[in-house]
Amino acid sequence: MRSFASENISPDVVAFQFAVRGKIAIISEEIDSAIKKAKAEGKPNPYPFEKVVKCNSGNPQLLNQKPLTFIREITSMVEYPALTEHPELFHADAVARAKEIIKATGCDGTTGAYSPSKGLAYVRQTIAHFLEERDNVPMSPEDIYLTDGASIAIKIVMQLMISHPLHGIMIPNPQYPLYGACIQQLGGKTCHYNLNEDNYWLPDINDIKEQYEKYQNQGIKIKALVVINPGNPCGEVLPIDTIKEIIKFCNEKKICLMADEVYQENIWTDIPFNSFRKVLATMEPEIAHGLELISFHSISKGFYGECGKRGGMFACTNIPEFARLMMYKIISTTLCSNVVGQVVMSIICNLPKEGDPSYPLFKQERDAILGSLKRKAEYLCDIFNKCDGMSCNRAAGAMYLFPRITLPEKFIQECHERHEDPNETYCIEMLKKTGIAVVKGSGFGQRKGTYHFRIALLPPENEIEEVGKRIQVFHNSFMQQYK
Ligand SMILES: Cc1ncc(COP(=O)(O)O)c(C=O)c1O
């Protein structure tokens, strides 16, 4: 049998699922191609819409969010240094920053050369300074590792901990499916704790404790607990008391806390973002200097949305020297992360300040993006709560809503007879009838017997009313059909 015969492919690879790039994404592409083909051949459009609205992924610029001018001015000059000779084209502070970065790369090729494995020293220093200011806690650049987005950072960290099928990592349920996918790929055990839909999707420390005991009794050795704050897909933002409880729990069990904070700028209510690093530093010394904490950040989210440039990082707190050496070893096998992504990571950690020439435009662009996301979150949440058999918690943060749908028993039965996942079939129906692509709740995990979908708040604001209306009309008529 040849190496790539299906029976020979690693079962861990075959088994893992990644719903955000799953069947819905594939069907969306097929629909878009069919519409284009029909148009090119002068045939009638086979669908009742002009294009698919891709609300299935947190990819802001795909839905025409404009990149921040400050970031793009700097990256253009860093990529093509001759442009620094044309200061009339750029804001003066962007030119100065680009020159600083070009110098920091230490070579004429700027982003064309490999950087040190952990990332350019300049970039790590900038991030360390940002974290110090944000958290009021000292941070060494040596504890920062640059990666091609947070995704790979998460996998690298997990790789260090999983070396046996009974090594488990606790992740929220619902989760961002990267977590389950990584654990499975690495051959470990996914262990869930629950987010409580009846309490704005917040985790409950008693549930975390209960689940931990349950998994331990099954012989699983829990190595880490993951928190996504603000949360994807549910949009919860953790209050300080919950953060403290989770820190105490992880410290007591001597397990690593992985804090995914990629949505830290996306806050929609008066619940502020508090980093785990910051809260940890306020706790008694035994915990503050004991808990092993890894924090993740990325250029993909916030108001920057530079997903395609692939920049991210992880920062270590209280991680012993040997483990950091091993992280270095893993990271060095890829030589270094994408240098443009590193540059952008340094820019999002050092944005224009009041008085800088770029500040007025930067402020205008940032406020427009964040203001629009907040309005869209509120508008869609209201619409969903008006639909027959749909309910939705408001999102306190991140970029998504995760409404619950009560699927009619008759529909569920029919799907089961056809061996289909009712949640997926519902989302496919919605896609085919409305042109709106969302992700099935079962792709993130949900309490048994409940159904949801995740919608990204990313279509332009002038299209959001239409998106809301189309979903409402579709859903109400769907419910009617199965009454
Ligand atoms: C919670 C969460 N963590 C990590 C990532 C990965 O981001 P990146 O683009 O930096 O790899 C995402 C992407 O959507 C996410 O939602």
Automatic annotation (TrEMBL):
Subunit details: Homodimer.
Organism: Entamoeba dispar (strain ATCC PRA-260 / SAW760)
Cofactor(s), names only, from the UniProt record: pyridoxal 5'-phosphate
GO biological process, one term: L-alanine catabolic process
Gene Ontology molecular function: any one: pyridoxal phosphate binding
Stated name of the protein: Alanine aminotransferase, putative
Family annotation (Pfam families): Aminotran_1_2 (PF00155)
Enzyme Commission code(s) on record: 2.6.1.2
Sorted UniProt keywords: Aminotransferase, Pyridoxal phosphate, Transferase
Annotated ranges, domain Aminotransferase class I/classII large: 99-471
PANTHER family, A to Z: ALANINE AMINOTRANSFERASE, ALANINE TRANSAMINASE
Family: Belongs to the class-I pyridoxal-phosphate-dependent aminotransferase family. Alanine aminotransferase subfamily.
Signal peptide: none
Domain of life the protein comes from: Eukaryota
